[in-house]
């Protein structure tokens, strides 16, 4: 890294500067730093190699030192030393802001898409129950209002159909269950869907409530697949670097989709510093693929950014020398010696672990471990998360419609083509409501007054009279 000294001159500081000092001391050479003319690491073009690799190849430099990734293509034109550091590729993202959930806190466990689907499902299933109650012959009841004390013949009117659906959502029972096969199949699959939905809502709401004291922010995406589908977020990478080349050559379908998205957006940056500034100013709408060591260093110095996402393209850094150069073998021996005595590891700790004042720089660790529950990320439940429950509900709707058609055809054939409403034989729904002992005495006393009798009846008489009344209702 280049910075100004107190006297106004330029000086170089950082991991590479300290490493070169150690190698120069071990091997016994002197060196001068020179920035590559185009500021690039090096990529092959029709006109030759660019960046540091091109300058070493053209003998404008003896050693290329920096965050230079060892690749097979580069190895064909230069010699690499032993690896000085292992790395991978991650995303550099802006840390999401802590925010107050406000009155919408209770709707956070589900994504907007799933809330819309749930509302549509309630409307469709409720209306389908109404259609089944209207057209299925096995839901019809022919009985007078005097005998239908529980209103069973109108159990699945339009209003009651939606009441049945909404009561299921709150895990409440309903007075009259469906009697037809189509209605029962629909109810069974609807209850399964509701069960999955309530379990997911309860579990996610619990996580939200546990994290509420810290008011943990939400990431706008969870996986690289989500990043492909999110058109509000631009994805960048350093132009003419190994990361860009790895994405272009990747055979992974998700990474291929990301490459196409990045190419269409043309969101390449000329340097890591430019990418860092875009990430910081984007308010979460720009993320950048950066090698993890570079991303970690930047996050240590800038507390409003962090690493995120799984490791991609494991690789290593090395120094590049001209083909057949004697200095390369001497540097290799020095690197092995520095690694064996632990100086290389101490140098890494000095510039990465102890150089910055920012903590919680690795967003990947939020989902793995933390000092408290509030360090866990919280994601709304999406349609993808509930795919099984949604498919089961869709299957239940199809099965219910098929059985409704079968019921209509069977009834039409069995009645000789006559469409008439059969009288249901289930007498349980026509029973008179049960009376308590107190209500029995009141009813008996009222009967005595009408008959002109003032003598109270005994319990035996009450029991006999009530039993007779119930029998009479049953025989009716």
TrEMBL record:
<feature type="domain" description="Ionotropic glutamate receptor C-terminal">
    <location>
        <begin position="1"/>
        <end position="354"/>
    </location>
</feature>
<dbReference type="GO" id="GO:0005886">
    <property type="term" value="C:plasma membrane"/>
</dbReference>
<keyword id="KW-1003">Cell membrane</keyword>
<feature type="transmembrane region" description="Helical">
    <location>
        <begin position="388"/>
        <end position="413"/>
    </location>
</feature>
<feature type="transmembrane region" description="Helical">
    <location>
        <begin position="114"/>
        <end position="135"/>
    </location>
</feature>
<keyword id="KW-0407">Ion channel</keyword>
<keyword id="KW-1071">Ligand-gated ion channel</keyword>
<feature type="binding site">
    <location>
        <position position="242"/>
    </location>
    <ligand>
        <name>L-glutamate</name>
    </ligand>
</feature>
<dbReference type="GO" id="GO:0015276">
    <property type="term" value="F:ligand-gated monoatomic ion channel activity"/>
</dbReference>
<protein>
    <submittedName>
        <fullName>Uncharacterized protein</fullName>
    </submittedName>
</protein>
<dbReference type="Pfam" id="PF00060">
    <property type="entry name" value="Lig_chan"/>
</dbReference>
<keyword id="KW-0675">Receptor</keyword>
<dbReference type="InterPro" id="IPR019594">
    <property type="entry name" value="Glu/Gly-bd"/>
</dbReference>
<feature type="binding site">
    <location>
        <position position="69"/>
    </location>
    <ligand>
        <name>L-glutamate</name>
    </ligand>
</feature>
<keyword id="KW-0472">Membrane</keyword>
<dbReference type="GO" id="GO:0038023">
    <property type="term" value="F:signaling receptor activity"/>
</dbReference>
<keyword id="KW-0812">Transmembrane</keyword>
<keyword id="KW-1133">Transmembrane helix</keyword>
<dbReference type="InterPro" id="IPR001320">
    <property type="entry name" value="Iontro_rcpt_C"/>
</dbReference>
<keyword id="KW-0813">Transport</keyword>
<feature type="disulfide bond">
    <location>
        <begin position="303"/>
        <end position="358"/>
    </location>
</feature>
<feature type="binding site">
    <location>
        <position position="74"/>
    </location>
    <ligand>
        <name>L-glutamate</name>
    </ligand>
</feature>
<feature type="domain" description="Ionotropic glutamate receptor L-glutamate and glycine-binding">
    <location>
        <begin position="1"/>
        <end position="58"/>
    </location>
</feature>
<feature type="site" description="Interaction with the cone snail toxin Con-ikot-ikot">
    <location>
        <position position="337"/>
    </location>
</feature>
<dbReference type="InterPro" id="IPR015683">
    <property type="entry name" value="Ionotropic_Glu_rcpt"/>
</dbReference>
<feature type="transmembrane region" description="Helical">
    <location>
        <begin position="186"/>
        <end position="211"/>
    </location>
</feature>
<keyword id="KW-0325">Glycoprotein</keyword>
<feature type="site" description="Interaction with the cone snail toxin Con-ikot-ikot">
    <location>
        <position position="248"/>
    </location>
</feature>
<dbReference type="Pfam" id="PF10613">
    <property type="entry name" value="Lig_chan-Glu_bd"/>
</dbReference>
<keyword id="KW-1015">Disulfide bond</keyword>
<dbReference type="InterPro" id="IPR001508">
    <property type="entry name" value="Iono_Glu_rcpt_met"/>
</dbReference>
<feature type="binding site">
    <location>
        <position position="243"/>
    </location>
    <ligand>
        <name>L-glutamate</name>
    </ligand>
</feature>
<feature type="binding site">
    <location>
        <position position="291"/>
    </location>
    <ligand>
        <name>L-glutamate</name>
    </ligand>
</feature>
<keyword id="KW-0406">Ion transport</keyword>
<feature type="region of interest" description="Disordered">
    <location>
        <begin position="435"/>
        <end position="476"/>
    </location>
</feature>
